[in-house]
Amino acid sequence: MLATSLGHVVHALTRDEARRIAVRAQLLDAERPSDVVEVAEQLLAIKIDPTAVIAPCQHTTLWSRIGWSYEPGQLTKAVELDRAMFELDGTFRPMSMLPLLMPSMRTWPKRASSRQWLEANTKFRADVLARLRAEGPLLAAQIPDTAEVARNNDGGWYGPNQVPHMLDFLAHQGEVAIVGRAGRHRIWDLAERVYPQDVPEYTEDEASVMLAERRLQAAGIAKQKSPWTPVGQAGEPASVEGSSWKFRVDPQAIAALDDESDGRVAILNPYDGALFDRPRLREIFDFEYVLEQFKPKAQRKYGFFAHPILIGDMFMGLLDAAVDRENAVLRVNAVHQLIPFEPEEDEMVRAEIADLAEWLGVRLVDF
């Protein structure tokens, strides 16, 4: 450890230590969690994405942590029955995050164009809330579109129906909430019927500090000024060998550095939160990950939706595979070795791919 001119202790970490902290924080070491809510409490957000080249992101994220015992019904139960988790902004989050988000919800939206759209649709807003109060829970398609002003759709990304926009806006304001799903379609109701009513209340400043602390716990270590993992002054200062970055590190992760913990193989969905902070991936893991989903086929090197392969604390390969649902098989097109595997590592990767096929309930095509 080093000391700054202000007397603060700066933890001097090796690259191995920094990677170990990050891997453990994302629950990707050998000590697997056993519960969906436990994973959500640590990761804070589990991205929802329907792309199912192998399986949807929310399910592979949980399988990558929990392993073979994870079943999709466990996530549904945690969200829709136990109300231990909730859906917001394309992610599942633990209910413990709600009181930390509520202060910013009360002042949302910040963007002037969004405020103007809401103001121009005051009656529409009231219509949507009244319909949910009288008839909810409802799908967006069951709510009439009485909008007076449509949102700008220059990019052509959205359909003409304004109801989904209003529901998303009201969700960000904490007025409505997603009570469940019918396939890919969200089911909406008043937030007061979905969220617990006895949550702690914080000021926006208090919540901001606590959010930064929770983000740092989920990351383990992050750049002090990062738009990808905003942790502010949470935790303690740290440096990493070979890096000029100023880091913040979770004190609990520092305290656990000497604890024995073996590594393992983890296959990650391309949208897994562990991969979100690309600059940190490059700086700590020396891993340049580019998702080739949106590249023309001729320009793809590793495959349409290649899943990174973590071995211990190093990203050593990419799995190019897809489920053939008609024939109930997992077809492995390639296992790209970014760093050559040792024989034992090759065996571990093959075993993890076999476990993936078994979890999916399909046959693995020999590769």
What does this protein structure show overall?
The structure is a single chain. With 367 residues, the chain is of the alpha+beta class. It has a domain at 265-364. The chain has 13 helices and 16 strands. Helix 5 (98-106) crosses helix 10.
Biggest β-sheet, characterized?
5 strands, mixed
Let me know the number of strands: 16
**Spans with pLDDT under 50 lasting ≥5 residues?**
none
Percent helix, as a range, is 25-40%
How many helical elements?
13
Question: What descriptive keywords fit this protein?
Answer:
367 residues, five-stranded mixed β-sheet, alpha+beta
Write the layout of secondary structure elements.
Blueprint: E1 2-3, E2 9-13, H1 15-25, H2 36-43, E3 46-47, H3 57-66, H4 72-81, E4 85-88, E5 91-94, H5 98-106, H6 112-120, H7 122-135, E6 138-139, H8 163-172, E7 176-182, E8 185-190, H9 191-194, H10 204-219, E9 221-223, E10 236-240, E11 247-249, H11 251-255, E12 265-267, H12 278-285, E13 307-311, E14 314-324, E15 329-337, H13 343-360, E16 363-364
Parallel strand pairs: 2-10, 15-16
Antiparallel strand pairs: 1-2, 3-5, 4-5, 6-8, 7-8, 9-11, 10-11, 12-13, 13-14, 14-15
Helix pairs in contact: 5-10
